[in-house]
Amino acid sequence: MRDRLHDLRLDALLVSHLPSIRWLSGFTGSSAFLIVEPGSATLITDFRYRTQASEEIWDGVSVAIAESDLFGEVARCLDEAESGPRVGFEDHSLTVRDRRALGECCGAVMWEPSGPLVDELRSSKDSEEIGSITQAVQLAEQALEALLGIVAEGVSERDLAAELVYRLRLAGSESNPFDPIVASGPRSALPHAKPGGRRLEEGDLLLIDFGATVEGYCSDMTRTFVLGSPAAWQREIHGVVSEAVRAGVAATEAGVPARDVDRAARDVIAEAGFGDRFGHGTGHGVGLEVHERPGVNSRSRETLHAGSVVTIEPAVYLPGRGGVRLEEMVVAREGGREVLTRFPLVLREL
Ligand code: ZN
Ligand code: ZN
Predict the structure, then answer these.
(1) What pLDDT does residue 83 have?
(2) Burial of 30 per CB tally in 10 Å (0-12, 13-18, 19+)
(3) Which of the ligands is closest to the CA of residue 292?
């Protein structure tokens, strides 16, 4: 990151996005700034995190506890460090109000929007990070397998979602990266359905999208099941989506533009005649955040790096009838890929 600061002719970077602060310093609290300079890094937090910060923080980062507010401490640190006047800030994370407060506190600083500089670096994971993500995938798969034991006609989506959260925690997940989606019957055609009171019926599609967290790192997976034996249309769209997943996975590789991966999956769905039934991106990066760089969609200008972890989650939604989405997690490698999700893709009858 210091190389990037040098390239951008910045004298320092003020990091405000909490997952990026964690990634750079180890700190997991909810209130902090991190100032990175060529020869030092300082975490600024408040009284509540005095002990936690000293325990969590990595070598090479010092901790400053703000006496009154964080902004005053930022000014003091920048002043003390005799920083040059050009300080980058994360314009996708810092609020307008905080930017104004910093302007008032640090009169001499020339603030430069730095864009998602740290986020870009985070999009390539090392083996330790991939290890945590792999564990999060495995915990999620265990919890899903346990959940399927109680799926039956008459059980509500909301009850299944509650049970899934409970099983995830028992399996060792630290938190939910997002509220699980459990959508049954016609509701499976809603891409971001909230689990509701609908009770499962024979012949329903059942879409479950959820994840686990290990060491702060997330997993994200989707499977769609059927209660009883599938109708021909259910079998057809499940087959199309499975094929699209395989095409997207096969296209995932270091050096490939993310939009090419999107196109590989999308083409399969379009060729099967369901192009207008798949209206979202094919996937996204996953790490300390469940949605992070790179975006795997038709507008993406990002390239996959070795160690980029992305989801491949094409879908076909038939309004009023039902939908199928399947989501895998894949690591891009030089000359290939590694699929982290192990749960079978076949249409499982419950
Ligand atoms: Zn998902
Ligand atoms: Zn996802």
Answers:
(1) 61
(2) exposed
(3) 2
